[in-house]
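Whiteboard transcription, Tuesday session. T.W. wrote the structure tokens on the left side:
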């Protein structure tokens, strides 16, 4: 049985991934694990090192990885810096892989860097991640329902999920990219998002009209 490791986003604890975890396990038959980390108090490098050890210690013929928002940035950072040896595919949900305009807006105001936390501040300072050249296939799901604080304050422009723009999720070299009508939070409770992630884990591509389901 393949394993899926789920990685939460900023300010979250992993509880928010419960719906995705249950659907991946009960409907699609994956073993699941949650990686919890200090999204505010620890640096991106520190969290990536812990994640690498967590993945290396996970069992299964293949160990797939799913990250939401900052969790996806953390996954890509870890895989580009020190990839674990286990095989598997990667899915990022609403992850600002090309940098976050909302996080940059926060860091420009007093105490803003403390609000976004060390990991997101590190990611924002570094800007866009390098083009994907990892051995694992990488799938990215972005949202197009602009319901979120980023849209409200005008920090996010263009099509977005309300927190991260679609453009900010497009990492060159990724295997597949899909835009769904969800916002940054609702994608965590979307059967369609969970099913598309499962399809990518099984087949290495997302399901589209005219392409047979796995």
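and on the right, the sequence the group agreed on:
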């Amino acid at each position: 049985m393949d394993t899926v490791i789920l990685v939460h986003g900023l300010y979250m604890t992993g509880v928010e991934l419960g719906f995705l975890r249950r659907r991946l396990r009960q409907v699609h038959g994956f073993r699941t694990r949650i990686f919890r980390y200090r999204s505010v108090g620890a640096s991106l490098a520190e969290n990536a090192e812990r994640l690498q050890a967590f993945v290396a210690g996970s069992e299964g013929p293949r160990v797939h990885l799913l990250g939401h928002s900052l969790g996806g940035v953390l996954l890509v950072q870890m895989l580009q810096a020190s990839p674990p040896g286990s095989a598997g595919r990667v899915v990022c949900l609403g992850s600002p892989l090309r940098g976050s305009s909302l996080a940059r807006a926060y860091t420009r105001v007093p105490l803003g860097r403390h609000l976004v936390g060390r990991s997101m501040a590190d990611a924002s300072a570094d800007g866009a991640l390098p083009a994907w050249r990892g051995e694992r296939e990488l799938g990215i799901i972005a949202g197009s329902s602009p319901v979120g604080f980023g849209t409200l304050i005008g920090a996010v422009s263009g099509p977005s999920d309300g927190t991260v723009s679609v453009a900010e999720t497009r990492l060159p070299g990724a295997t597949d990219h899909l835009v769904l009508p969800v916002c940054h939070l609702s994608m965590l409770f979307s059967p369609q998002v969970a099913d598309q992630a499962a399809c990518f884990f099984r087949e290495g591509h997302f399901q589209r009209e005219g392409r047979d389901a796995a």
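Someone added at the bottom: The helical segments are 18-26, 44-56, 70-81, 101-107, 112-126, 149-152, 166-169, 191-203.
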